[in-house]
């Protein structure tokens, strides 16, 4: 009862005032024009500005931007802000060359920029282990075979099938040889004899994987150049091959089975190395 | 010729795709399975899905990669100087581990895409091939394998054992092929 009374009194005394304020605010908002959009960065005279992004479009903080006047060779530098933005103001007329650097990332840039011509946005990408090999990736990508695999609806799918069959034979061989040299199974023959039996199948598996892999590589080389899992896959592929055909072969063939002292560790390492290759290969599709 | 014939056969499986509309009883159940919160969470997870999928593929090396040596021995193509029993004993533990991983991860993957799988001609071919592989094992163990003691040391086992070994390799190759192609056939 009391509350109702208070609110009634309140309404009578202040209701009009509140109402008036409300109406004033609404009309004020109405009367105002839509605010002009802020000018695009780098569109004012004498200004070069923009943003640096990573490959997945997040803001790149702390990149060093170097701007060189093409005529005078004079340079100015700045670093990108938390939001990945940079700007240069009060630049004389002319054309400029811009370069963006950051540790662990591939340098990028643009030439022939005129001040006031709008935002200059660049993407930075992580520096890859095989940076100098980019021409090889690019060449493979543009070969006839690369184009053919890429454009055919089914070629890639069938190559995947062969890749997987090769993987099965190869991993099966690696594990079988590993079990023999670690003295776990197939003990009725010497490790050297078992290694000889397994070798042709291991090589067939390897050939299947390599051949199908090279063709799929050609089809996707430019994408794979930037793939972290592919980088790891190749690194471990090289390591696994070297280890398999030097260390494991030596352990299996050493005279009087003297290599078997290292059998368990060699088997374990070879299996781990090959499985890392296989996992990173699968991860290319996911990450 | 053989490769062309096989790929045409595999290509033909795409024709057995069931439509999305008018689901039958089983397809209805599969749709319900695929649309449960669990299945959706699994499909869309950032790490669980790749790990389960990766395990399914990687276990090939120890499941089919293991049985391969037994099949090769049975068909007289490799390991001829080992007794058949020894090869079987050698590969059995890792082969069984591999197939256990395959079945568990395979079931999880199926539950994540139950309806898409059911509609896919490749999935149904895979199930048929798996059953054929199972029958092959059952026939082998209930017939010629019962007399294994008499041919355990033969460098070239009897015809029926060789057929079982070669059938097994063909069926597993087919299973891997349709399994891989299925992934290209699961979208929509």
Strands ordered across the widest β-sheet of chain A: 3-2-5-6
Strand content of chain B: under 5%
> How large is the share of residues in beta strands of chain A?
5-15%
Query: What is the largest interface, and how many residues per chain?
Result: A-B, 37 and 34 residues
Number of strands of chain A: 7
Structural shape of chain A: elongated
* Low-pLDDT sequence parts of chain B: none
* Gap between N and C termini of chain B: 32 Å
Fraction in helix of chain A: 40-55%
Radius of gyration of chain B: 19 Å
Overall pLDDT of chain A, averaged? 87
Secondary-structure element string of chain A: HEEEEEEEHHHHHH
The percent of residues in helical segments of chain B reads over 70%
Detail the poorly predicted runs of chain A.
none
Q: Please compute the radius of gyration of chain A using only Cα atoms.
A: 33 Å
Shape field of chain B = elongated
Oligomeric grouping of the chains: heterodimer
Order of helices and strands of chain B: HHHHHHHHHH
Q: Give the number of helices of chain A.
A: 7
Tally of helical runs of chain B: 10
Keywords:
heterodimer, A: 287 residues, alpha+beta, four-stranded antiparallel beta sheet, B: 188 residues, mainly alpha
């Amino acid at each position: 009862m009391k509350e109702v009374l208070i609110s009634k009194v309140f309404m009578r005394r202040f209701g009009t005032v509140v109402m008036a304020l409300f109406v004033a605010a609404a009309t004020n908002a109405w009367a105002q024009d839509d605010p002009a959009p802020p000018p695009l960065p780098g569109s004012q005279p004498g200004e070069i500005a923009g943003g640096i992004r990573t490959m997945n479009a997040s803001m790149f903080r702390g990149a060093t931007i170097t701007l060189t006047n093409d005529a005078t060779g004079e340079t100015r530098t700045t670093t990108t802000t938390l939001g990945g933005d940079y700007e240069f103001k009060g630049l004389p007329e002319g054309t400029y060359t811009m370069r963006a650097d950051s540790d662990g990332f591939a340098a990028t840039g643009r030439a022939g920029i005129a001040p006031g011509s709008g935002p200059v946005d660049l993407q930075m990408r992580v520096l890859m282990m095989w940076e100098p090999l980019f021409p090889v990736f690019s060449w493979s990508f543009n070969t006839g075979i690369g184009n053919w695999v890429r454009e055919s609806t089914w070629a890639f799918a069938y190559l995947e099938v062969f890749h997987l069959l090769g993987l099965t034979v190869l991993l099966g061989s690696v594990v079988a040889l590993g079990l023999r040299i670690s003295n776990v199974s197939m003990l009725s023959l010497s490790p050297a004899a078992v290694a000889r039996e397994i070798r042709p199948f291991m090589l067939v598996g390897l050939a299947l994987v390599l051949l199908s892999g090279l063709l799929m590589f050609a089809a996707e080389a430019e994408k794979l150049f930037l793939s972290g899992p592919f980088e790891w896959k190749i690194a471990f592929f090289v390591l696994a091959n070297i280890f398999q055909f030097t260390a494991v072969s030596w352990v299996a063939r050493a005279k009087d089975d003297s290599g078997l002292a290292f059998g368990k560790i060699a088997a374990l390492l070879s299996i781990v190395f090959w499985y890392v290759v296989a996992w990173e290969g699968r991860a290319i599709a996911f990450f | 010729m053989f490769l062309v014939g096989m790929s045409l056969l595999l290509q033909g499986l795409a024709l057995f795709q069931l439509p999305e509309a008018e689901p039958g009883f089983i397809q209805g159940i599969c749709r319900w399975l695929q649309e449960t919160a669990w299945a959706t969470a699994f499909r869309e997870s950032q790490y669980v899905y790749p790990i389960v999928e990766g395990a399914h593929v990687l276990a090939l090396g120890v499941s089919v990669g293991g049985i391969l040596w037994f099949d090769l021995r049975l068909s007289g193509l490799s390991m001829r100087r080992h007794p058949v029993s020894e090869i079987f004993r050698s590969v059995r533990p890792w082969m069984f581990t591999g197939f256990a991983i395959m079945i568990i991860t395979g079931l999880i993957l199926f539950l994540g895409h139950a309806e898409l799988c059911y509609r896919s001609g490749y999935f149904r071919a895979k199930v048929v091939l798996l059953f054929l592989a199972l029958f092959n094992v059952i026939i082998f163990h209930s017939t010629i394998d019962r007399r294994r003691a008499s041919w355990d040391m033969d460098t070239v086992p009897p015809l029926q054992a060789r057929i079982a070994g070669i059938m097994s390799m063909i069926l597993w190759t087919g299973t891997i092929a349709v399994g891989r192609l299925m992934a290209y056939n699961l979208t929509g």
